[in-house]
Model the fold of this input.
Amino acid sequence: MSAKKPLEGIKVIEMSTFIAVPACARYFAEFGAEVIKIEPKSGDLVRFNGASEGRLGDPYENTTFDLENAHKRSLVVNLKDPEGREILFKLLEDTDIFLTNWRPQALGRLGLNYEDLKDRFPKLVYASFTGYGEEGPDMDLPGYDFTAFWARSGLLGTSYQKDSEPVNLIPGIGDHTAGMFMAAGVMTALFNAQRTGKGDKVAVNLLHSAVFVQGIAIQAAQYKGLGQVYPISRKTAENPFNNTYQSKDGRYIQISMPPFDVFYPKFMPLIGREDLVGNERYTMASITKNKLHGEFVQIVSDAFAQKTAEEWSKILTEGDIPFSVCQVWEEVLEDKQAWAAGVFEEVDYPSGKRTMVRPPVCIEGADKRPYARGPMLAEHSEEILKEIGYTDEQLKEMHEKGVYNSWDDVKDFVMSRQ
Done:
């Protein structure tokens, strides 16, 4: 049987901001690792994004920050001060994993690149997250998921409807995807470090992550003239069975049947077109060769327009057809299957109960940690410093010099930013 907390005893230092690396660190915290989040006095900027995300800005009800930072402790330390860096070095002495998304040039100025630390901390797994990678002409550009993941990778430029406009992007999709890639890489390096006694560097970036998730389509784009050039229209979908269709009541339904010819004789009677079963005109090869995509999509569109989404849901479910009504977020929050699968958990906040999203990995036998808020900025500074041997007298002196800060120091600043 697996341990109740599989990562108990693993220590993680996270020095990052925004989403990807905090989400990676949250994964380790979820399964029992000790995670210390090191922040500057100004804090992780996600702490102050409430208004732009359509949610409350109260630091005691910051659902975005809690999603990425539950079960962590916060330490505010001035790393520009040599004493502040010495605090970090003391922490790293018994740390297994160091995670950062600071840009390489900023790390270099403080002597915190992998090359600076690997000999001093030989067992340390060092993980670096960037927008565009650590080599190449654009390695120093600032990278966010909207730009490096969505736009630069081709995802945003190809995924919208032809003759339309780019889709409205949703915060965190690229970051969460790449953050889980980072967790996978770190776990691989950690396994090797525990086996050999030697740590290593893990490097993940948004651009590579986005290209990888689109790998099938990007590779196929090399074969000129064999397929449609994106962006395309759903009215001429390459595979009409991987497409959306509008119901009588205006809802879009996504169907997904990649082996077109296998599903064809089963699907066509369900939409009232038994007469087309066996028609050689509508094999996948014929549709592709004769460019009949638009013609066949219209046949299916006309059929879907005859019934409501509820009626189609019953028909397609009974027919064992892969489909889903295109839900909006308000519907997803009430989705019974999502709740049954452990996607959500209710959490008490000052304004009442809120539905929170849990990390997407479940391990049988491991404790399911109750949802917890992320730490207040600098909430655990003194607690952590005492754990690594600093006395009350040393703390008083360092605090007076601004080497570290506590929640009481920064509380007014945080509240003023909301």
Notes: The radius of gyration is 26 Å. Residues 173-196 form the longest helix (24 residues). The chain has 19 helices and twelve strands.
